[in-house]
Amino acid sequence: MFLTNSDMVELIELRHALHRAPEISGEERETAKAIVCFLAPSRPDRIVTELGGHGVAAIYDGAEPGPTVLVRCELDALPIEDLSGVPHASQVPGKGHLCGHDGHMTTVAALSRGLGRQRPQRGRAILLFQPAEETGAGAAAVIADPKFKEIAPDFSFSLHNKPGLPLGAVRISEGPANCASRGLKIVLTGHTSHAATPEHAVSPMKALARLMPELTALGPGGALEGDYRLVTVTHASMGEPAFGITPGRAELWATLRTLNDGLMGSLCAEAEALVREAASAGGLSVAMDYHDVFHHCENHPEAVAHLRRACDEEGIARGETPPQRGSEDFGLFGRSSKSAMFLLGSGEDTPPLHNPDYDFPDAIIAPGARVFMRTIRNLLG
User: Fold this and answer.
1) Cα three-residue angle 304-310-315, rounded to 5 degrees
2) Are 297 and 177 in contact (CB under 8 A)?
3) DSSP readout, 348-373?
4) What is the full per-residue pLDDT of the chain (381 aa) written as tens digits?
C-alpha cells in the first residue's frame, strides 16, 4: 500500500471539499485550482493547465525512455440538487457531484503521492483531470488542444464507480465498454391562432404526438449486443401555457444510443427521416441539431490485461462486465492510445448515479488508486 494513514486523511478531506463546491461542465475553474494546489507538494515535472478548457495534466518523468501512461478523471459535477444530507453536501444550490467525479479526482490525485516519492524508472506518468465529461465535449477539447501534443499517451486508463457492485470490486472486459449516444433536438414550427378557431392555425400537436412513439420504436433497447439501439424521449413542449392560443411551435428532445459508433449513423438517418415526414404531413417547418455527442468506448485487450494483472497483484476481486448503456467521452483517448476503463464497485445498496442522494464512498479511493499505481509501476517501473 503506497498511501499512508495521513495521505488517506488528506485525500478524504480533498474529496469532501470537492463535493461541497461542485462546478458543472465548462465552469470548473476553482475545481482545477484546488487540484493544482493538492498536486503541488508532489513536485510534478510539469503541470499543464487550461487544457481543453479548465483541464489539468501533471507530468512525472522517468529517468529513461519509455512509454507514456495517462490516467484520466473528470472535473465536472451535475446540474442536480444535492439531497444526500451528508455533512459535506454541496453548498451550491442546484449543483452536485452526483456521478462520483469528486471521488474519481481524489483517486487520481492519490497517485501524486506515490509518484512524488518515487518517480517512474522510465517513460512518463500523466495524471489528467479532464473538464466537461458530462456534456461529451471535454475529451474532444483536450485532444484538440495544441498542448495535448506534449502528452500523447501510449496507454490511457480510467475508472468509473458503479453502484450495485460490491464495494471495491473491479469489473472489466475487452471490447465495447460504453455506448455511443447523442441528443437530437427537434423544433417544429407552424403558426398560432385563437383557441376558438384552431382551423386557422398550423399546429404541431399531431406531429409531436406521432413522433414520440415512432422515435422510441426505432430504438427499443434489449440485450446490449449486436445491433443494440435505444431511443429515449427526454423532453417535449408545445405552445404557450395559455388556454386561448392554438399552439404554433413544439420542441422534442430525444437521446439516441447505440452499441458502437458504426450503428449511430443509420439510427440518426432513420430518426431524421421520420421527423421530416411528420413535419411535411403537418405543413410544418422543422429544424434539427445534435448535442452531447458521445462516441463509444472500446477497451483495448492489452490495456485490459495490464489492469487485470494489477488487480490480481493487489489482491482486488475482479470479474467481467457487459457494455454499459451510459456514455463516456473517454472513448476518444482510445483512438490514439491503448485505452481501458474499469468499473469500481461503490456498494450493492447505494443509490444509482445521478440520483440526488448519491455520495461517492471514501472506502473505494484506496483500492482504485492501488489498481492505477500498480499498473503504472508494471509499465514504467
Assistant:
1) 130
2) yes
3) TTSPPTT-TT----GGGHHHHHHHHH
4) 899 999 999 999 999 999 999 999 999 999 999 999 999 999 999 999 999 999 999 999 999 999 999 999 999 999 999 999 999 999 999 999 999 999 999 999 999 999 999 999 999 999 999 999 999 999 999 999 999 999 999 999 999 999 999 999 999 999 999 999 999 999 999 999 999 999 999 999 999 999 999 999 999 999 999 999 999 999 999 999 999 999 999 999 999 999 999 999 999 999 999 999 999 999 999 999 999 999 999 999 999 999 999 999 999 999 999 999 999 999 999 999 999 999 999 999 999 999 999 999 999 999 999 999 999 999 999
Give the orientation angle of helix 101-117 with respect to helix 29-39, to 10 degrees: 30
CA distances from 145 to 129, 135, 148, 149, 196 (A): 14, 17, 6, 8, 57
Q: Determine the Cα–Cα distance for residues 135 and 78; give it in Å rounded to an integer.
A: 10
Terminal C-alpha separation, the chain: 16
Residue 28: C-alpha distances to residues 132, 305, 352 (Å): 8, 33, 24
Query: Residue type for 66, please?
Result: G
Residue carrying the nine cell digits 472500446: 298
State how far the alpha carbon of 221 is from the alpha carbons of 182, 231, 254, 264, 285, in Å: 15, 8, 14, 14, 30
Identity of the amino acid at 205: M
The DSSP-derived string for 52-106 is TTTEEEEEEE-SEEEEEEEEEEE--BBSS------TT---STT-B--SSHHHHHH
Give CA–CA dist 344/366, Å, rounded: 11
Which of 261, 203, 254, 200 lies closest to 228 in space, CA to CA? 261
